[in-house]
């Protein structure tokens, strides 16, 4: 190909990458926007004791589907599989927005419908991130890939800052339904760009999808999440339902281990866990997801109820956490590049994150917005030390040929940590709330039907309102007490990480047997 022809291709590559970034932004923004809108959704539908399932269903769907999307892309081609995942995400978004409306039934069914459609949305989202990373690998040579990884970090930062603001603005000035409908025009633009401009290598391979392993992993994870969600809430901890789910989870995960040892292409290669650094980072990633998702979901609830902030202002009030995380993450990335040293950062991050969680246990009805902002900055700084470093350590500790499996597994453990954290924190919150003065107002019974109407809360007599707000603040701070018990393990685990010198170049991967490829190009 002549040099002018090469120059003609480059602008279209940028168009394709722009479409990919929009698609990735959808997945990253969604939970941030929805978390801010959740108190208003609960106010309309009721079901405060189940509100965390709106997020759990999405995270669970994303987590269990991510490795499957990756295998489907290898087998059937990344373009068609990726576009299918975007389409499923958009269909799920539209259905979420219509939950409880006249199109799909009465308001009484709204929360159940929303949870179900969030699971559909999560199934589509599972293919977005893994698809973007794989497609960039097809289009961009390794020497140039670093700057696009920087773009991905920038997109993540924008999503973390913009999500709560967009969610708050939509909730205050439009309707919570637009927290889902906003995905449709953005997704439509991404689909149009990618369909018309993207052409990827065509593979003919003999890959086999580990369907049995995927099914067993999905069953095991779902059963565990149900145990943490329903235990002590819907059912007693030692009831037949909870013990049965625990037994199902144990059997499914043990069977998954046997299947993965024999599968030609396992969903989760168990041999990676023989690597000490990978095993430690997997657990740290689980705890990081656990803490991060818990904070994101309960802080807006505290701000909108106890502190009386509007949905938009609650998004603004989360900015200190995002700012601390973003600034420290960027600074640590540059420091690691300059020095090549990284072992101290997850240790420091674990200590600071635990301190931040400890400070958040002090939240009560008298905590000012300045105080809560300072608490969130500390938590964000701790997360910033860990977010980028944990993935770097995992990737650098394994052979280049295992890089894809390692990245997928690290993402999986962070996601499943978020899923477990949301469900367990939700159960702890609901149980604590039920025993407080706020329990009678929000946990069902009476004409309220378990609704949380913020306007009605403002109309309560001063003494009654103070009791309800105190109960809510106590339940939320109790959640952070439990979070401390998990985050305190992070610096202890990080202490045992072995610092392996950072590779300065990637190994050249061997050509896949039986695969025929065509050069990557764009129209």
From TrEMBL:
It holds the Pfam family MFS_1. Its main location: membrane. GO terms for molecular function: transmembrane transporter activity. SUPFAM superfamilies: MFS general substrate transporter. It is a multi-pass membrane protein. InterPro entries: EmrB-like, MFS, MFS_dom, MFS_trans_sf. It is found in: Cell membrane. Belongs to the major facilitator superfamily. TCR/Tet family. This is Drug resistance transporter, EmrB/QacA subfamily.
